[in-house]
Write a structure and sequence with these properties.
Order of helices and strands: HEEHEHEEEEEEHEEE
Number of domains: 2
Helix content: 25-40%
Strand content: 25-35%
Structural class: alpha+beta
Number of helices: 4
CATH topology of the largest domain: Umud Fragment, subunit A
Shape: globular
Oligomer: single chain
CATH class of the largest domain: Mainly Beta
Distance between the termini: 68 Å
Largest sheet: 8 strands, antiparallel
CATH architecture of the largest domain: Ribbon
């Protein structure tokens, strides 16, 4: 029996080493995931039909957080931005927030209601107006090939976009709370530009 003791201890050492390596691997993976989400890209779940027909409820999209470090938002970009009217402050614990954030980062957790997805229509310094069922920017009708041919909007008064802000609208013009409701949004609140739809797989495409 004593002769078997070194083998038992060796197995314990290997088991302990495996657990340490596994822990290091998990911590490293977590750090990479958090770093990617914070600085590079993040997945989002589409919770509403405000961007139909381009994006449907349940679609998963990936948002680039680097795009607007290289250039300013452009007309036609689909962007994710912080809600102009955020809900109550999150009072959950740090572990729960991290786990939920990771789930949202890969698009599997319940969607956050603190971000909106809309399309950039008006740029800083421009005027945006809705009349005759169409959108006009600086007095000229905006050509919008991403909308259904029969799409119309309710008229709204001329809005001048302040410096450092953009005017955004949902593609589903009859069912979208956007800059017609809460006004232009600050560039600082934009999380990033939507670059690709990854789910459902048959509908995967660059945007």
């Amino acid at each position: 029996m004593p002769a078997a003791q070194p083998e038992v201890e060796h197995k314990k050492d290997r088991h302990g080493s495996f657990l340490k390596e596994l822990l290091i691997l998990l911590v490293t993976a977590l750090a990479i995931a958090v770093g990617v989400k914070t600085f590079v890209a993040q997945a989002f779940y589409i919770p509403s039909g405000s961007m139909l027909p381009q994006l449907e409820v349940g679609d998963r999209i990936v948002v680039s957080k680097l795009s607007y470090r290289l250039h300013d938002p452009r007309r036609g970009d689909i962007v994710v931005f912080d809600s102009p009217n955020p809900g109550p402050k999150d009072d959950s614990g740090p572990v729960e927030r991290v786990l939920r954030g990771l789930g949202q980062a890969v698009g599997v957790a319940a969607p956050s209601t603190d971000e909106f997805v809309k399309r950039v229509i008006g740029l800083p310094g421009e005027t945006v107006e809705g009349r005759g069922g169409r959108v006009f920017v600086n007095g000229r009708e905006l050509v919008e090939p991403y909308l259904p041919a029969n799409s119309v909007i309710n008229d709204f008064g001329q809005v001048r976009v302040p410096p450092g802000q953009v005017f955004v609208m949902g593609d589903n013009r009859e069912n979208s709370a956007d800059s017609r409701v809460f006004g232009p949004i600050r560039l600082a609140t934009i999380v990033g530009r939507v670059i690709v739809r990854v789910w459902p797989v048959p509908e995967a495409s660059f945007l």
